[in-house]
Amino acid sequence: MAIERMKFLSMTGNERELDFIIANDLIGSGFQPENTLKVLEKGWKVTYFSYDSTIKEYIKKAKELLNEMDVPYVKKQVELKKKLEEIKEDIDSKSQEISSIYTKIEENEDQLAKIEESIMPIEHLKNLPVALEQLYNLKYMKFRFGKISLENYEQLNNELANLDVLILELEKTDKEAWILYFTPDKLAEKVDSYFKVMKFERVWLQQEIIGRPADILTKAKEQITKTKNNTEDLKAKLIDIREQNGREILNDLLQLELLEKINKVKKYMAHDNKGSFYIVGWIPKDNLQELLPKLNKDNVEYVIKNHDEVISTPPTKLRNNRLIKPFESIVKMYGTPNYTEMDPTFFVAITAFLMFGFMFGDVGQGLVIGIIGAILTIRKSNLGPVLIAGGISAIIFGFLYGSVFGNEDIIKGLVPSPMDNITSMLVVGIASGAILIILAMIFNIKNEIKNKDVGKVLFDKNGIAGLVFYIVILALIVGFLVNGQMFISLSISVTLIVVTLLLILFKDNIENLINKNKARQKVSIIEKIFEIIEMLISMASNTISFVRLAAFAINHVGLCMAVYILANMFGTTGSLIVAIIGNIIVIALEGLIVAIQVLRLEYYELFSRFYTGDGKEYIPIEEQK
């Protein structure tokens, strides 16, 4: 619930030890580096470190190598035991070896596919007692090889007497027959046409395949066995490489990733021609005490300064407990707090919690939102804990209103339903808004005291003058509405209003007098008057804007009533279905709308009065991408 104190740390040491110092001292220490050359005073003869772009290339190469070796990636801490060039040589060597093996395996698989494709037709010729080249070399005859359906084959046999053809049956199944047919050269075209009509499927034999089919098959099967054995040997070799070198390659990869982190840190650093490095940055005060003994041990010289002693802007590290931390995301959506302003996370957590439940009070629907939040939390979503808080708030206010899934007859409410108590709801909404606006002004005063800005503390529209003016106006209105009388006498009220308005109007002039600023800039009185008018409108609109708390609470009841009116038009089953669908729509649609209204009230009505959100987020070395 605070912003952690930071120290500015400047370091210098021996460049030869730099990688070790970054890896073992700085990474994990919470140190956030700054651009060293921008911080060092002019006259320093130093330059940036060069960036080694090959490290990323070899990280990719090592990951691909692990994938090819089927070695799982396991993240763990490693020490820099090898030089970069040694790691590169290891990866290149293993990559080439494995790539060569995979190439040979692919070649073997291609060879197997070709052999199997070439001998497929030979399988049907295995009983042929002659060499294939004898068929190729026939002088006055042509031969054809292929298959034909059994039905057409039988018809063909019946008509053989009318054809000048000799058929040699090779194989026969219950569906087809594999055959060789021979015909004279001169009649080949006519006979081929006839066989085509009979749907004979010709298979072409490769002329380079010679010898007796049985011998060809024997040799081919021997070649297939030999090739498969070679492939198995290569795969076994891959397993050996994995077992012998997998861990080493993983360590190489982890060291490369560490070197890449070191590389990124060096982008912020500088070095001189005498072999010294220079680095500056911010570190949380609590972390500093753990880092200093390491720096002393490694002979690193350092200087520690407070944030107000340097030109660099300190980053903001928020420190909140587990219950409040999820609401940091809401704050950071608006902007990270700057180092000197208050952390509004606790304020946001409390107000958002109460406002959501006030507008969306329902036990059943709140339970559903809480369950969704729990599921998202299990899945490591930042939104999960916020939804759990919203669900709990809705359940609490649901018991107050007596509403369970929009039904107000199941449990008795502790307060009247928003629909039955509209006036009171509106009053509570506006009163809550007024209190929150007063708190926002107090926070602004606190911030400006911290910044030592006397003018803004005393005379700003969100300072003491603005706060007094707002409280007096509220007191007059509330007194008049409650009993027709004023809590503060009219003369005192008018005096306070006039004085505070004049202080706000002439704020710049008074500041110039206090600071004895002779070269002060003239400010148009017309411009200041318009600023006063804008302030009055802003105070009124910001306060009235909290009417939406009541409006959406009433709207929620109205929507649920509409769902049950519609459900009662159907039978038992239909009524249940309509009620379920209606509640889902209410949870999804109005839940989203109410969440948006909460953000609007936080950002526009409250943050605009005290919070700038122009800070620099704290991202230490180990968390930088």
SSE order and pairing:
Layout: E1 2-3, E2 6-14, H1 18-26, E3 32-34, H2 36-39, E4 47-48, H3 54-69, H4 84-119, H5 132-136, E5 141-149, H6 150-158, E6 166-172, E7 176-184, H7 188-197, E8 201-202, H8 213-266, E9 270-271, E10 276-284, H9 285-297, E11 301-305, E12 318-319, H10 328-334, H11 345-359, H12 363-378, H13 383-401, H14 422-451, H15 454-459, H16 464-483, H17 490-505, H18 507-515, H19 525-544, H20 547-567, H21 572-610
Antiparallel strand pairs: 1-12, 2-10, 2-11, 3-10, 4-9, 5-7, 5-8, 6-7, 9-10
Helix pairs in contact: 3-4, 3-8, 4-8, 11-13, 11-21, 12-13, 14-16, 14-20, 14-21, 16-17, 20-21
Summed up:
The chain is α+β, with helices and mostly antiparallel strands. It is 60% helix and 10% strand.
Instruction: Give a short account of the largest sheet.
Output: 6 strands, antiparallel
Q: Return the domain count.
A: 3
Average pLDDT number? 87
Question: How many separate helices?
Answer: 21
Helix content: 55-70%
Low-confidence stretches: none
Q: Please state the overall shape, judged from the principal axes of the Cα atoms.
A: elongated
Indicate the structural class: alpha+beta
Beta-strand content estimate = 5-15%
Radius of gyration: 43 Å
Number of strands: 12
Amino- and carboxy-terminal Cα gap: 27 Å
Notable characteristics:
625 residues, Alpha-Beta Plaits, 3 domains, six-stranded antiparallel β-sheet, 21 helices
Explain what you see.
This protein is α+β, with helices and mostly antiparallel strands. The protein has three domains: 2-49 and 267-309, Alpha-Beta Plaits (2-Layer Sandwich); 130-211, Alpha-Beta Plaits, CATH 3.30.70.2750; 318-610, no CATH class. It has helices at 18-26, 36-39, 54-69, 84-119, 132-136, 150-158, 188-197, 213-266, 285-297, 328-334, 345-359, 363-378, 383-401, 422-451, 454-459, 464-483, 490-505, 507-515, 525-544, 547-567, 572-610; strands at 2-3, 6-14, 32-34, 47-48, 141-149, 166-172, 176-184, 201-202, 270-271, 276-284, 301-305, 318-319. Strands 2, 3, 4, 9, 10 and 11 form a six-stranded antiparallel beta sheet that branches. A hairpin with a 4-residue loop joins β9 and β10 (276-284). α3 packs across α4, α11 runs antiparallel to α21 (572-610) and α14 packs parallel to α21 (572-610). The chain is elongated, with a radius of gyration of 43 Å. It starts with a strand and ends in a 15-residue tail after the last helix. The model has no long low-confidence stretch (mean pLDDT 87).
